[in-house]
Design goal:
This protein folds into 6 domains: 16-97, Sandwich (Immunoglobulin-like); 127-222, Cadherins (Immunoglobulin-like); 230-340, Immunoglobulin-like; 348-455, Cadherins (Immunoglobulin-like), CATH 2.60.40; 462-562, Immunoglobulin-like (Sandwich); 570-669, Sandwich (Immunoglobulin-like), CATH 2.60.40. 3% of the residues lie in helices and 42% in strands. It contains 2 helices and 53 strands. The strands form 16 sheets. Strands 45, 47, 50, 51, 52 and 53 form a 6-stranded mixed sheet that branches. It has a 4-stranded mixed sheet with strand order 2-9-8-5, covered by helices on one side. The termini are far apart.
């Protein structure tokens, strides 16, 4: 068996370049008008209106297909692309320029053959040479692209093609004539989707059994310049400081091209199409055509933010493939460049001296100091910081920056006194938050004087001290002197008189002499009054001057009341119940309380009033300083009894209070106490006899 090499173009006419990829060695120089190689294009219909375009403008293709240099060229790049178009067809050919030591490797890469592929590993009857297909071919389809040959002419033998693009997704792109071995493509290919297809060819007999193969068939898609450069990383915003040196890099613009990166189809060059605005120079910036770096090209003097029409520039950037040739595709994007401010202008007061007037005793903002600054209002190079550097020893003034207007708000924080000083002079400086650049300094305009005039106000009299305190015993006689108050008028230059009056006297116990301020009592002072809190009675008094209108001052008087034993003790409880058959004759525990304070309260003395009758019925026993216990000496009949009990406090002199304890003796059955029959009082024998005697006397007048 003999291996035969064959291509589809040897057997029939295929419209387009009859060979699509060429390799030439890089000469020392391409000589003007000397043919480099010959390209064969055939549209199978006479090549009417045939025209060639070369990617490198230093070359052209003659009508007969000869590629010649238009001038002596020492560097033509790595590849040339020739586009041919006639009335009936168009195609693209690629000419790769390699060094002598690269040629073999480049051919090996294109055809994907191993070093020993020329000598088959085993004897095969199938020859499947690599197929190159340009992407984006135009109809009609299917289009023959190559041919597979078998040297064995077995009767009934058929070719069978398989792999990705045939019977695997994407299916149906390629097919083979099972008799002739012609390989055809059914639709246009997209190299950016799939660049290479690895198929298998085998020969089968009439029953479908493989009799030879499979043999690999490689199909490579030749790139065409069908993708425009795209800027994918926007928005593109760059910043550059004003006054930056010429050649300062601002930002980098990078575009993407989906075409083959090893060809000029994806070789990008950058250019600035438009600059807005065009002042102070229409060419403020330059872009590196290969890297995409945007740099400044004007002098630092022109890059002055304060003299620019606007600190924002917009550049329309174009990226063009094919190395920037006219035949290249383009894509555009907008780069926004902001000129950043630096602190090259100090703030300056709009005038050297400011005036302010303030009433004494008033606080708050009295004047706004205005400044001008040519720097960017959005930065610390514009924001002002104010400092009082002289005239504020008492720290009566403060100054703060208004964040909206940048003005200095001068305030009085401690009330001023006209009588002490009617005029104040402040020296104020202004600086920026950010430091000035080294060659700029603050000048005389960055300081200003503020003249402040204090207006006199009729101030109310002031009590000394305030509050006023005094200690008195309760129950002192009405008309007693409590205190003489003292109030003075701060308006010492006005020589005004002061009169006094009562402002608040909750219990109505006090009066004040309107002329000399003597406070006296008009009622008994009672420490136990609800108007007294924690032994202190509080009243307010007014001091009123003779100004027009008059001014008023308020003074507070605290009277601490000392206790006097003027309250008798009280007894609790005053009602007790006991069963008539009770075994425990301890009837009730009594307690005593006193509104007075120690030592006018406990210990208390508990006593029973004298008991009448032949025998004693109860007794009282002291438990502690404040409590005692009443005990029955025997069981009593069901009735009500009144037991007079006297309680005496420890005051000097002591006070005694006698209280009757009502004792109910009730019948108790089954844990229920019945006191209903005890409503009538059981009175001592003495009281009964007195009653009978009274009735007897009334009967016999």
């Amino acid at each position: 068996q003999v291996l035969l090499l064959a291509c589809a173009e040897d057997l029939e006419c295929v419209p387009g370049f009859q060979r699509k990829v060429f390799y030439i060695e890089q000469p020392f120089e391409f000589t003007e008008d000397q043919p480099v190689l010959n390209l064969e294009f055939d549209d199978c219909k006479g090549n009417n209106k045939l025209n060639f375009e070369v990617s490198n403008p230093d070359f052209k293709v003659e009508r007969d297909g000869s590629l010649v240099a238009l001038k002596n060229v020492s560097e033509a790049g790595r590849a040339l692309f020739v586009h041919a178009r006639s009335e009936h067809a168009e195609d693209m050919a690629e000419i790769l320029i390699v060094g002598a030591n690269e040629k073999h490797g480049a051919l090996k890469e294109i055809f994907k053959i191993e070093g020993n592929l020329g000598i088959p590993r085993q004897k095969r009857a199938i020859l499947a040479t690599p197929i190159l297909i340009p992407e984006n071919q135009r109809p009609p389809f299917p289009r023959s692209v190559g041919k597979v040959i078998s040297s064995e002419g077995t009767e009934g033998a058929k070719f069978r093609l398989s792999g990705k693009g045939v019977d695997q997704d994407p299916k149906g792109i390629f097919r083979i004539n099972e008799i002739s071995g012609d390989v055809s493509v059914t639709r246009a290919l997209d190299r950016e989707a799939i660049a290479n297809y690895e198929l298998e060819v085998e020969v089968t007999d009439i029953s479908g059994k493989t009799i030879d193969g499979p043999v690999r068939l490689d199909i490579s898609v030749i790139d065409q310049n069908d993708n425009r450069p795209m800027f994918k990383e926007g928005p593109y915003v760059g910043h550059v400081m004003e006054g930056s040196p010429t050649g300062t890099t601002v930002m980098r613009m990078t575009a993407f091209d989906a075409d083959d990166s090893s060809t000029d189809n994806a070789l990008l060059r950058y250019n600035i199409l438009k600059q807005t605005p065009t002042k102070p120079s229409p060419n403020m910036f330059y872009i590196d055509p290969e890297k995409g770096d945007i740099v400044t090209v004007v002098s630092p003097v022109l890059l002055d933010r304060e003299t620019m029409e606007t600190p924002k520039y917009e550049l329309v950037i174009e990226a063009k493939d094919m190395g920037g040739l006219d035949v290249g595709l383009t894509g555009t994007a907008t780069a926004t460049i902001l000129i950043d401010d630096k602190n090259d202008h100090p703030p300056e007061f709009t005038k050297k001296e400011f005036q302010a007037t303030v009433k004494e005793g008033v606080t708050g903002v009295i004047v706004n100091l205005t400044v001008g600054d040519r720097d960017d209002p959005a930065t610390g190079a514009w924001r002002a910081v104010y400092t009082i550097i002289n005239g504020n020893p008492g720290q009566s003034f403060e100054i703060h920056t208004n964040p909206q207007t940048n003005e200095g708000m001068l305030s009085v924080v401690k009330p001023l006194d006209y009588e002490i000083s009617a005029f104040h002079t402040l020296l104020i400086k202004v600086e920026n938050e950010d430091p000035l650049i080294p060659d700029i300094a603050y000048g005389p305009s960055s300081t200003a004087t503020v003249q402040i005039t204090v207006e006199d106000v009729n101030e109310g009299p002031v009590f000394h001290p305030n509050p006023m305190t005094v200690t008195k015993q309760e129950n002192i006689p009405v008309g007693s002197v409590v205190l003489t108050v003292n109030a003075t008028d701060p308006d010492t230059l006005q020589h005004q008189t002061i009169r006094y009056s009562v402002y608040k006297d909750p219990a109505g116990w006090l009066e004040i002499n309107p002329t000399n301020g003597t406070i006296g009592t008009t009622a008994i002072l009672d420490r136990e009054s609800p108007h007294v809190q924690n032994n202190i009675y509080t009243a307010l008094f007014l001091a009123i001057d003779s100004g027009n209108p008059p001014a008023t001052g308020t003074g507070t008087l605290h009277i601490t009341l000392e206790d006097v034993n003027d309250n008798v003790p009280s007894l609790y409880p005053t009602l007790a119940k006991v069963c008539d058959d009770a075994k425990d004759l301890r009837v009730v525990v009594l307690g005593a309380s006193d509104k007075d304070l120690h030592p006018n309260t406990d210990p208390f003395k508990f006593e029973l009033s004298k008991q009448s009758g032949p025998e004693k019925l109860w007794r009282i026993t002291k438990l502690n300083n404040t409590h005692a216990q009443v005990i029955l000496l025997q069981n009593l009949k069901k009735a009500n009894y009144n037991i007079p009990i006297s309680v005496t406090d420890s005051g000097k002199p002591p006070l005694t209070n006698t209280t009757e304890l009502k004792l109910q003796v009730c019948s108790c059955k089954k844990s229920k106490m019945d006191c209903s029959a005890t409503d009538a009082l059981h009175i001592s024998m003495t009281l009964i006899l007195l009653s009978l005697f009274s009735l007897f006397c009334k009967s016999f007048p």
